[in-house]
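In line with agreed milestones, the collection of sequences with tokenised folds has grown. One record among many is set out beneath this paragraph:
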Amino acid sequence: MRTRWWLLLLVSVSGLAWFSGHRSSSPAEEAASSQRVAVAPVADRAATGGNKGPSRKRWAERIGSADDSGLPDLMREIPAKDRGAVLEAWLASSGKGLLGDPEVFRLRRLLDAWVAEDPKAALEWAGALGDPALRELGMISVAGSLSTTDPHAAFECLVNHGMFRSTISDPRITSLMRALSQDSLKLGPAALAELWGRLPGASDTVSETYGIGLKYPPGTDFRALVDELQAIRGASSKPIFLTGVFEEWMRRDPEGATASLLERFAAQNGSISRSWNEIYRVKTDEVGAAAAEQWACEVIKGIPGESRGQFLLESNFLRSEGRIEALAQSSDSAVWIGEALQFDADQGGRTMKGILEPLPEARRIEYLKSLRGPRAAEAAASVMGEWNLTESQQAEIRKAITGS
């Protein structure tokens, strides 16, 4: 009898042990697992390896509480096969899509350590992230980690990423592009243009872009450089761009730089605002504000009247404080304001109010009456409504514009 009781007790204990080690997932755990698959598929795959030691969640908690200086060592402690899963668990706990500068900085420190040991694995993880914003952050961070040890591999990270949807705020990337550009420039304008032609463009969601300047060696063919860069620029802007080309050209060959800008404008070959600002800034530094303004007016005077209004708007020349009032004082340059207004009206009148506001009411009415065309009538009606003009004044302006 005693033997039978011992056997029953042994069977009961064994059954309890089996049951406790093979329980089914709760609904909450299944939901969490499905969310991981939807948001972070790489992390879910990595989590199926049956870790020994701390769980993914515990590792993520340690990342969240560790000092910045301890992050590299902590990353090296995490089993290699679980690093991607741990990072995604930590990112999810930080609030996916709401990462602030501290979290971004910590991610860079962690990826620095991972890239130092296994750049291929880190890159594969970043490239496989399902959320576009996290993928972009991951790819840019990996590129930043590679930028000093393998700059060409870092650049390929950016190329493989594709169109950028947010501002590249990692200073290592601007340093990377500057270094690669400086090396390419040694091979000539075509090599530099080819490098920048491979950098993906920036979507309309990118709120801020960054310019980088280079050191141009003696004998640089700036005309060829401008032509090459213009040829590869394409329809989209870049998240990072070369700046200072016309500025340096203007310092060495002012006539050549100015002539090139006017040729580009006449051919409608891209925006001129940044190039004109660089040229005008150099001229101001060299001769002072008053003489630079006089020089600019001589340049503008030589532009055909049918194109001058467009140049004034696209170069942003009219935006300087007090410039519209000053131009209106001269009979010659006062005509330019009317040309700018007509061009603006033909484009929808987006800047008409800003051009006219510095002027007295009588002068505003005079300029509005000089406009022609149906779009000009629409644009004039829009601004007249904000100036408390009488109905008779508005009717007189409409009649002058439309002829009826």
Q: What stands out?
A: Residues 1-53 have pLDDT under 50 and may be disordered. The CA atoms of residues 23 and 222 lie 73 Å apart. Residues 56-161 form one domain. The beta strands are 210-212, 240-242.
